[in-house]
Design brief:
Helix content of chain A: 55-70%
Radius of gyration of chain B: 25 Å
Number of strands of chain A: 0
Mean pLDDT of chain A: 93
Largest sheet of chain B: 5 strands, mixed
Strand content of chain B: 15-25%
Number of helices of chain B: 5
Low-confidence stretches of chain B: 12-21
Largest interface: A-B, 93 and 99 residues
Structural class of chain A: mainly alpha
Shape of chain B: elongated
Distance between the termini of chain B: 56 Å
Oligomer: heterodimer
Structural class of chain B: alpha+beta
Radius of gyration of chain A: 23 Å
Order of helices and strands of chain A: HHHHHHHHHHHHHHHHH
Distance between the termini of chain A: 16 Å
Shape of chain A: globular
CATH superfamily of one domain in chain B: Cupredoxins -  blue copper proteins
Number of helices of chain A: 17
Strand content of chain A: under 5%
Strand order of the largest sheet of chain B: 3-2-1-5-8
CATH topology of one domain in chain B: Immunoglobulin-like
Low-confidence stretches of chain A: 1-26
């Protein structure tokens, strides 16, 4: 219904004037040198910056993970002080969530949404520039905390009071960094929604949109709903610390648990913010390389929408041990278990898409398949964690660490990698080294399991999370896990090499890139790389 | 002869819990309380449900990957939905979930029933040690990481943790409770949030400054049970173990009397 009105401006009111404008655009390429990036308003340039920024953060956060796994390689403290260890776990999480995964998705949205809906650019290009350029400042603040008295934040990424209030000079830097990240995310989300709602090609009704666009539309609404909640929560921490308020202090009539409720009201939708776009990417890739249409498109859309809705009413399953009334525990247990239903629908539909298809195994498909298997394992452990009595054992152990890393690394991150391998030749115009990419896939998939699967065993045997040292009974699996971590970390250097070698040029990619899989979607109707203003005239959908 | 066999059997049985905690452990050990056994049973139930679903789902995936390969000349079918299939795989999971929710809810109701306890201990978490106070028994004390572990865990101590007995899981003064009695734990904290956890009792709960949480356990077997703080509480979060010494009623009573006498002597001396 919005499509007919939104494409009005594509219809030339005055053919002569329209033609004139086109000519003006002909020599309007990217600016030269640094101005192209600092003043960027082009969706592809901004998308590229987001993705490269995310890659940088992936390696910084990954280095911190290596410090963690090196200290945990064997019992006893060998390398770092416990306080620095706590800083590493907290910073690793903040950087990976807000610096690596979320910007990667916004980068993919910037590149792909205009290409997939047939638009010339994002709807709000200057806000787009702003939302990206906030990020380097946010992360300069956050990483700067490593060098201030009192050290980097060490109270966990969840920032629970009263512990977080013991942070040294890093405290206000942490809060303002979170504010900046939130502002950036909200602007990115607004841009996505406005673009999707107003700039779709004629004939592309909502239920004809590509799944990646659908997943991002819903993600963007989640972002707008919850990022202000996080901003409110951390602002209350700030005033508790500096302005004598007692929102979270029992002595002043406040409640430390209230912070947890507010935080997880943000935090649970946040975990879906980090997975839904990967659902979208995988829903693009599996049909292409199965040479078959996505099974149950409509139910896939409804499943994402149901997951998004349910994400708002399950937050307290992160805090079953705080001492909730029985009715509260039962409600959050049942609501959480309900999420398994739409998630199951998605997994079954992806499987049904492959069933009786004609499968080939290029790098994007390999990563999508790995996603399918390993995300499902993360889903199973999630279901186990929903059972409150069992959660009393699992809570805050390595079982939880294993669970969320299964949904975030082979889930969200493999989804991103699948997307990069799928669209990179479209972006750069060059094919990457397919053989090396398959090496990257096999090394990543094997090591990610060596890294995270034993953590299930550690958690069940009773190892708490966020500890720098442990009893010798946990020694063996920790060593295995650390070996997996080093292998996984090193394998990612291949990923960076493949991306840069594709940017610098190799064999040219065709317009369809995956010619013998004949991918569907508007992005494949453009040249590789696409023209500067993507779709200057809106394509017509039949 | 019978005596020797009995002794040997007892020794083997006594070493079993130790073996259950040995390295390369894969699963949650069975605890020593009714609740922990119920929780363990729930854990096994849902684990097996997941395993069965996984075999079915991964089976179809692997079958599709092997069978429908383009390199083997597979030709794609052109169906793209089936309302019947989609209803089936929406309804079946709901049925399974309900079947799992029922025993979970029943166990939860049992866990939350803290009435009719025989002994109440107030547990207060501090950075980084526990304080135990036996309500109406006039006994209280702090419980900190044992000295040997504390020396070994220092950065660059040069001590091999394998040479330290119960490394990081040993304290100076364990909590002593009677076996077979319902012990109610009242949890709070003096500074930041901590969590009190003994895996063999099946439960953990947060200790929150300014608030009091309740939990209970009834240990069937005499023995020493070890756990740790389970909520990040700052620098030495990894170094505040929980150790509970479960004794027979008589041993507990005599222990309690010794403690009370010691306190009386101490106050008299002042």
């Amino acid at each position: 219904m919005t499509t007919t009105s939104s494409i009005a401006h594509h219809q030339p009111a005055d053919p002569v004037r329209e033609h004139h404008e086109d000519e003006l655009h002909d020599d309007h390429g990217p600016e030269k040198g640094w101005r192209r990036w600092v003043f960027a308003t082009n969706h592809k340039d901004i998308g590229t910056m987001y993705l490269l920024f995310s890659l940088l953060m992936f390696f910084i956060g990954g280095t911190m993970a290596m410090v963690i796994r090196a200290e945990l390689f064997k019992p006893g403290l060998q390398l770092v002080d416990p306080m620095f260890f706590n800083s590493m776990t907290s910073m690793h999480a903040l950087i990976m969530i807000f610096g690596a995964v979320m910007p990667a998705f916004v980068g993919l949205a910037n590149w792909m949404i205009p290409l997939q809906v047939g638009a010339p650019d994002m709807a709000l290009p200057r806000m787009n520039n702003f939302s990206f350029w906030i990020l380097p400042f946010a992360f300069t603040l956050l990483l700067g905390t490593l060098f201030v008295p009192g050290g980097a934040p060490a109270g966990g990424w969840t920032m629970y009071p009263p512990l977080v209030l013991q942070t040294g000079n890093a405290f206000p830097m942490l809060i303002f960094a979170v504010h900046l990240m939130g502002a950036s995310s909200i602007m990115g989300a607004i841009n996505v929604i406005v673009t999707i709602m107003n700039m779709r090609a004629p004939g592309m009704s909502l239920l004809k949109m590509p799944m990646f666009v659908w997943s991002w539309l819903i993600t963007a609404y989640l972002l707008i709903a919850v990022m202000p909640v996080l901003a409110g929560a951390v602002t209350m921490l700030l005033t508790d610390h500096y302005f004598k308020t007692t929102f979270f202090e029992a002595a002043g009539g406040g409640d430390p648990v209230m912070f947890q409720h507010i935080f997880w009201f943000f935090g649970h939708p946040e975990v879906y913010i980090m997975i839904l776009p990967s659902f979208g990417i995988v829903s693009e890739i599996i049909p292409t390389f199965s040479r078959k249409k996505l099974f149950g498109y409509d139910s896939m859309v409804y499943a994402i929408a149901s997951i998004a809705f349910l994400s708002f009413i399950v937050w307290a399953h992160h805090m079953f041990t705080v001492g909730m009334p029985l009715a509260g525990q039962l409600f959050f247990m049942l609501a959480t278990m309900l999420i398994a239903v739409p998630t199951g629908v998605k997994v079954f539909n992806w499987t049904a898409t492959m069933f009786k298809g004609s499968l080939s195994f290029e790098p994007p498909m390999l990563f999508a398949l790995s996603f399918l298997f390993l995300f499902t394992i993360g889903g199973f452990s999630g279901l186990m964690l929903a059972i409150v009595p069992a959660d009393f054992q699992y809570h805050d152990t390595y079982f939880v660490v294993a669970h969320f890393h299964y949904v975030l690394v082979p889930g969200a991150v493999f989804g991103i990698m699948a997307g990069v391998y799928y669209w990179l030749p479209k972006w750069t115009g060059h094919m990457y080294d397919m053989k090396l990419a398959k090496w990257h896939f096999w090394l990543s998939t094997i090591f990610v399991n060596v890294l995270f699967f034993p953590q299930h065993f550690l958690g069940l045997a009773g190892m708490p999370r966020r500890i720098p040292d442990y009893n010798t009974q946990f020694a063996d699996w920790n060593m295995v896990s650390s070996i997996g971590a080093f292998g996984f970390g090193l394998s990612q250097l291949l990923f960076a090499y493949l991306i840069f070698s594709s940017i610098r040029g190799r064999a040219n990619a065709s317009d369809k890139v995956w010619d013998d899989a004949t991918p569907h979607g508007l992005e494949w109707t453009l040249s590789s790389p696409p023209p500067y203003h993507s779709f200057e005239t809106a394509p017509e959908l039949k | 002869m019978v005596k020797i066999v009995k002794c040997a059997l007892a020794a083997v049985l006594a070493s079993l819990p130790a073996a259950a905690f040995a390295a390369w452990e894969l699963n949650m050990p069975v605890g020593v309380t009714e609740l922990s056994r119920r929780i363990h049973a729930l854990h096994m139930l849902i684990l097996w449900v997941c395993v069965v679903i996984a075999i079915a789902v991964f089976g179809v995936m692997i079958y599709s990957i092997v069978k429908f390969r383009r390199s083997q000349g597979a030709v794609p079918a052109n169906f793209d939905h089936s309302t019947r299939a989609e209803i089936v795989w929406t309804v079946i999971p709901i049925v399974i979930l309900v079947a799992m929710a029922v025993p979970a809810a029943a166990t939860l109701v049992r866990i939350e029933d803290t009435r009719n306890s025989d002994l109440t201990v107030q547990v207060t978490g501090y950075q980084w040690r526990w304080h135990y106070k036996y309500l109406d028994r006039n006994v209280e004390f702090f419980s900190s990481l044992a000295r040997e572990s504390d020396a070994a865990r220092q950065l660059g101590s040069g001590v091999d943790p394998k040479t330290v007995k119960n490394y990081l899981l040993d304290v100076d003064h364990p909590l002593v409770v009677p076996a077979g009695k319902k012990v109610r734990i009242l949890l709070t904290a003096g500074d930041v949030i901590h969590a009190w956890w003994v895996p063999a009792f099946g439960m953990k709960k947060d200790a929150i400054p300014g608030f009091v949480n309740e939990m209970w356990f009834r240990a069937d077997q005499v023995g020493i049970y070890r756990g740790q703080c389970a909520e990040l509480c700052g620098r030495d979060h990894g170094f505040m173990p929980v150790v509970v010494d479960v004794r027979s009623q008589e041993d507990f009573d005599s222990w309690l009397k010794t403690q009370q006498d010691a306190i009386k002597t101490a106050t008299a001396a002042e």
